[in-house]
## 1
Amino acid sequence: MAWFKRQEKGIITPTEQKKETPDGLWYKCPECGTVADMGEHRRLLYTCGKCNYHDRIDSAEYFEVLFDDNRFTELDTNLSSADPLHFVDTKAYPQRIAATQRQTGLKDAVRTAHGLMNGQDLVVACMDFRFIGGSMGSVVGEKIARAIDYARQHRIPFLMISKSGGARMMEAGYSLMQMAKTSAKLALLSEAGVPYISLLTDPTTGGVTASYAMLGDFNISEPGALIGFAGPRVIKETIGKDLPKGFQSAEFVLEHGFLDFIVDRKQLKQQLTDLLHMLRPAVVEAPAVPR
Ligand SMILES: [Zn+2]
């Protein structure tokens, strides 16, 4: 029976004739393996319908999640990195920047914007992990600092969405200075009585955790996010002890008092709206800020 036995040998289907599912139609959850179509995945705001795994998303998606009708004004769109140290690793730094900009369509690892969230003004700074691991260099620091100033001058609550491997090594000391700069700007925002909410998403590590990400009036996180300063291997080797289970997960960090609450992305917009409503009297009653 020819149906069951291949009689001719050497039949090969060329790759271009193989019928494969086109990319981008299906999403497979890396946690539980459930397959969902992309439309459904998008409708669930890029979380898994079965195990609630929160997929990593970029600033474009967060802006869409938060801003009414996806309408917002982006701030400081044209800042781009210089090469103060003439840094070269496998590539010269300016080339790496140019290549990443082409690949991602982004200028650097953070975008800042002003828009309405359920009718309330909000300034958001959101990091993009795709841009050199969401690393914090002088452009990231400067854009965040300017967004904080903007929020303070207009008395609009500020939301920072962090997603970063930490400081950008190609700018070394200049990157580290961004920690002090953003922290100082946040202190001014706090003095002015304008609320600051910090949302930590997967992953938030290094100099970002050690500065603005942990300085919110509320520090909140998405479920399952990795939050830490140094990586687990470095810590294990330093203290010479095994680390507890779930170490550096958002849930562990919450239990140890470093987070105020964990929020499901599907409830993020509403919960932020409610939180800012509660904080509103503080914004209205605080004294005017000298410009
Ligand atoms: Zn899943």
## 2
Amino acid sequence: MPEIAANPALSVRDLRKTYDNRVEALKGVSLDVMPGDFFALLGPNGAGKSTLIGIVSSLVNLSSGSVGIFGIDLARDRAAAMRQIGLVPQEINFNMFEKPVDILVNYAGFYGVPREEALKRAEVELRRAQLWEKANVMSRTLSGGMKRRLMIARAMMTAPRLLILDEPTAGVDIEIRRGMWKTLKDINASGTTIILTTHYLEEAESLCRNVAIIDRGRIVEQGPMRTLLAKLDVEGFLLDIDGGIPASLPVIEGTTLTVADDHTLDVEMPRAMDLNRVFAALDLHGIRVRSMRTKSNRLEELFVRLTGENAGTKAV
Ligand SMILES: Nc1ncnc2c1ncn2[C@@H]1O[C@H](COP(=O)(O)OP(=O)(O)OP(=O)(O)O)[C@@H](O)[C@H]1O
Ligand SMILES: [Mg+2]
């Protein structure tokens, strides 16, 4: 009989983590990542992304909940679960005094890959990471972007079915970042499921099919990237108002108008909508706009919308 529905590459259920200092880093996180997916975990600093990744890759103990990796329960069969995973941690953690080729071969050796086979794989991975010319230099002399690519090459040495990357492109300039995106796309296209965390919406947009946004230990949004992007078709402006703001604000169809402070209005409206409609309606109410600012960073803006005090009450 053919295998029916595939197990998720990652299945997390009601995951909670309280650190010794009582910080509740995860407050009940559930998510599924299907095989073959390219999945982004987005969230502001301190949201709990690295904690989640740490638990999945067995570096951090969970407080409660469960983790399954291709149907293997992490608590029940940690070693088998770990064999499915390649991890690229947030901090660079290889020995700077080793050569890239040795870093890769020794890592594979640790996971039981014979040396001859490891040498072959190292060449493939170093070439894919565009580091083949650097195979025998001291790793300390690699640039920041090269070090990050070396971390990816190392994680691929065990041919993981699930590659997990914690901010793989942090602090890397845009050109090198784009090069890394290509490498990751190739890896995904060859069948490896990828989960990455990032602060860059552009990165998630260019790479990922599905996304979860995590904030203060909770998932606040989850679904296909394009659904999320459709929500971003809303634009936000802050309007500086001359004089006071009247008690009653005009109702402008399709927009959400709120009072930001005594002399600032916050308006959210579809990108396609004409701003003049807003100005005209405000004018009719005797509200004079002195100046306006866009709320520019889309991801930051989205976080604020999803996680701010008014979350759930605004039309997004
Ligand atoms: N080892 C630890 N001991 C105590 N608290 C921790 C530990 N690691 C993380 N935390 C706390 O848990 C919360 C979540 O941290 P985490 O590193 O998971 O966030 P993050 O989403 O990865 O953030 P960033 O984007 O800055 O990397 C934070 O409040 C952090 O201070
Ligand atoms: Mg982190």
